[in-house]
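Below is a filled-in request sheet from our internal design queue. Each sheet records the structural input a requester submitted and the sequence that came back. We keep these sheets so that new team members can see what a complete request looks like end to end.

REQUESTER: design group, bay 2
PRIORITY: normal
MODE: inverse folding
CHAIN LENGTH: 142
BACKBONE (tokenized):
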């Protein structure tokens, strides 16, 4: 089973950016934790601060991966082009967030991508990613 884990804008700053909200772990540590947790999966990790690069990666993923776990960062809240890419890609995408976006500033409470994702996991820090990968794995088994 091949999965792509995508991190959007500013997630390269994990561990330094608002640790009280996003935690102390760096992106490398987070990726390593996911790898250690799922040794049976073929995982690839991708981070970009650029909307177009994220869209290109989703297009390419169609041919290569069984599914995607995506933390789109702030693009979650306004990127219709990312939404369209997810809808067009025909492989399941699980939306994840470290923080509970439903309990934060008003603009974060809306996700324009949720509707085209398989499901959303939000608010559990690094565990959101682990739950996202687990949920996608179960989905792909059936
Ligand atoms: C985030 C929540 C977004 O609102 C924010 O812009 C991020 C991270 C999260 O993981 O909690 O960059 O997606």
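RETURNED SEQUENCE:
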């Amino acid at each position: 089973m091949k999965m792509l884990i995508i991190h959007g804008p500013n997630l390269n700053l994990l561990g330094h950016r608002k640790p009280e909200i996003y935690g102390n772990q760096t992106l490398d540590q987070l990726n390593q934790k996911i790898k250690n947790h799922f040794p049976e999966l073929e995982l690839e990790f991708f981070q970009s601060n650029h909307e177009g690069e994220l869209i290109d990666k989703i297009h390419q993923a169609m041919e290569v991966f069984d599914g995607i776990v995506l933390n789109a960062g702030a693009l979650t809240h306004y990127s219709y082009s990312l939404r369209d890419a997810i809808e067009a890609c025909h492989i399941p995408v699980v939306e994840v967030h470290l923080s509970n976006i439903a309990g934060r500033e008003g603009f974060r409470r809306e996700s324009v991508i949720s509707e085209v994702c398989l499901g959303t996991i939000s608010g559990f820090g690094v565990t959101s990613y682990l739950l996202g990968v687990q949920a996608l794995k179960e989905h792909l088994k059936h």
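SHEET NOTES:
- The first helix runs from residue 19 to 22.
- The two ends are 12 Å apart (CA to CA).
FILED BY: M.R.
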